[in-house]
Amino acid sequence: MKPVIVAHRGISSIQANDIAGIDYIEIDLDISRDGIIFVFHHPQINSFIFREPYIRLAKGVKKKAHELLYGEIQQLFPSVVTLTEVLQMVDPSKLVCELKSYTAYRGIIHVLHRMYPEAFHKLRFISFSMRALIEIKQIDPLIYCGYIATSIGDDNRFHFMVRKHHVQECVKNGIEEISGHWFTFRPRMIRFAHTQGLRVGIGQLNTIRRILYAQKNKVQVWYSDILKRKEISIDSV
Q1: Which CATH code, of 3.40.50.300, 3.20.20.190, 3.30.420.10, 2.40.10.170, is assigned to 4-231?
Q2: 8, 33, 124, 179: which one has the fewest Cβ atoms less than 10 Å from its Cβ?
Q3: Domain residue ranges in the chain
């Protein structure tokens, strides 16, 4: 079976020849203080000091994204784009939206549902936060959701390996996919996830070795930053 190919961190220029062979485009969502959802993946946003996301404004001065107005974020990072702009270029059914566990994801979900009601039900979501995915499922149980098991979760702890309880939690909450970085998802756990009816996704498939690992273990969803020797990014500027 042909795997689902997801362009991790979006695409640099959305044109037909850029997305040929790509099934979905993954984007990271965040929200400003004035309620504007934007797409961005930058080392100064969603980075950690004592596991806190921040934007460095000056020496010793840092703020979370939702503490700044969108205009302030745009001044700091002129290349940032809004979700509205992305939806003008890409069909929402082709987007996989990542909600970081340490963003104001409840605000993002609320604004998404209120401001983009038609698009909301067509989007796919992935998150480190099971709570975020549960909130989405409460709005619409049919929305496709994927749980990223290997990162900082709702307990504010870093989970290095995909474990049996992660799989069981997905099944319990009606989550369709469980994913992790390629070296954190062991073959035995991939097989277990398959037996529980889950799709398995693996990230960082940016080398031949990793792609062969995904093929050998029948991984259904591939997340890659580089496909066909071409960097694919919209929010990693």
Answers
A1: 3.20.20.190
A2: 33
A3: 4-231
- What pLDDT is recorded for position 64? 78
Structure tokens at 130: 């099971």
Q: Are 60 and 66 in contact (CB under 8 A)?
A: no
More confident: 100 or 176: 176
Whole-model pTM: value is 0.86
Q: Residue 110 CB: number of other CB atoms within 10 A?
A: 15
| Residue carrying structure tokens 């998802």 | 185
Q: What local confidence, expressed as pLDDT, does residue 212 receive?
A: 92
CA–CA distance, 146 with 195 (Å, rounded to integer): 17
User: Contact at 8 Å (CB) between 63 and 44?
Assistant: no
What are the structure tokens assigned to 208, written together? 């031949």
Half-sphere exposure of 77 (CA within 13 A, CB side): 23
How far apart CA 144 and CA 90 sit, in angstroms, is 18
Report yes or no: 9 and 26 within 8 Å, Cβ to Cβ.
yes
The alpha carbon dihedral of 211, 217, 218, 220 has a sign of: negative
Distance, CA of 49 to CA of 189 (rounded, Å): 32
